[in-house]
Design brief:
Elements: H1 2-27, E1 30-31, E2 34-35, H2 42-63, H3 70-87, H4 92-109, H5 118-145, H6 148-172, E3 176-178, E4 182-186, H7 187-211, H8 219-246, H9 262-283
Helix pairs in contact: 1-6, 2-3, 2-5, 2-9, 3-4, 3-5, 4-5, 5-9, 6-7, 6-8, 6-9, 7-8, 8-9
Length: 284
């Protein structure tokens, strides 16, 4: 497991950085007299990555006996991303899309002319719509407000909490955080991870300032935002663990060697997009 992470990790990191770099590069170009839009690369990349994650989520639901459809799950996720992006701060588009997705799911599952599993199946599709689609869409909203480098900064802060929590837990971790859900996590590791995220966030803000793309935040504000991002990222990790443990799984799939599945990689950033969007809106 660790060998695979060390082997494939650098390529994975380069791929993530490459997506944000390409998105920033494309948004700085023009087509004739029209400026190319922000998130022109990030939006399809998010749809693809979260589409794979929704496929994994559909498999997990089926293993629990919940009526589930891979296509419906992927479609609901993509609709959630697009609806959230289109709605901005307003909720009318998202609410309308949620109702439409639920109705579509109920009608599709009712084609078997059986009431059994229809409600649970509709709930599973709405889970994909909200958990993967709507939450993923907040990353696009964040990109529309800020440079792609700001989005990458938030990703690095989120993952730095994972790294800090791992090494702190290995060094001094004694008290389990949630042994019934994630036996490897400790309370000491959580504190170390949140502190690491706060420090990386403050350092990242200084680098963004030098690049001229930093949000209007103080160092203290960046550290506080980093701590909140780290804490919510760990919460997202635990939320995904609930789904996997309920299905008797350690990983969502084996799609990404050393990392498990797409859901295992995206679990912590999923919840972070919301708080990063609003924190930078309110504090900047």
């Amino acid at each position: 497991m660790l060998r695979d992470r060390l082997l494939f990790g650098p390529f994975f990191v380069l791929a993530v950085v490459g997506v944000f770099w390409l998105d920033e590069w494309v948004s700085s170009r023009s087509l004739g007299e029209r400026q190319l839009p922000a998130a022109a690369v990030l939006l399809p990349a998010m749809c693809i990555a979260l589409g794979f994650a929704s496929w994994e989520l559909a498999r997990i639901l089926r293993e629990k006996g919940v009526l589930s459809s891979d296509r419906m799950s992927v479609a609901a996720t993509v609709i959630g991303i697009l609806a959230t992006t289109a709605s901005g701060q307003g909720g009318a588009v998202v609410s309308t899309a949620a109702a439409g997705v639920m109705l579509m799911a109920l009608l599709v599952f009712a084609r078997h002319r059986s009431f059994e599993g229809i409600v649970a199946g509709g709930g599973g599709v709405l889970l994909a719509f909200t958990y993967l689609g709507v939450l993923g869409g907040f990353w696009i909203l964040l990109r529309l407000d800020h440079s792609a480098w700001v989005c990458l900064w938030v990703v690095l802060v989120t993952k730095s909490c994972d790294i800090g929590a791992y090494f702190t837990g290995r060094a001094i971790g004694k008290r389990k955080l949630a042994p019934w859900l994630s036996p490897g996590k400790t309370q000491e590791g959580l504190v170390g991870g949140v502190a690491t995220a706060a420090g990386v966030s403050a350092l990242g803000l200084l680098l963004l300032r030098n690049a001229g793309v930093a949000p209007d935040l103080s160092i203290a504000g960046a550290a506080a935002t980093g701590a909140a991002v780290g804490l919510l990222g760990q919460t997202g990790d635990l939320v995904a663990s609930m789904f996997k443990r309920d299905a008797g799984r350690k990983d969502a799939s084996r799609s990404l060697p050393g990392f498990g599945g797409w859901l295992d990689v995206l679990d912590s950033p999923l919840l972070v997009g919301v708080i990063a969007f609003w924190a930078l809106r309110l504090l900047a």
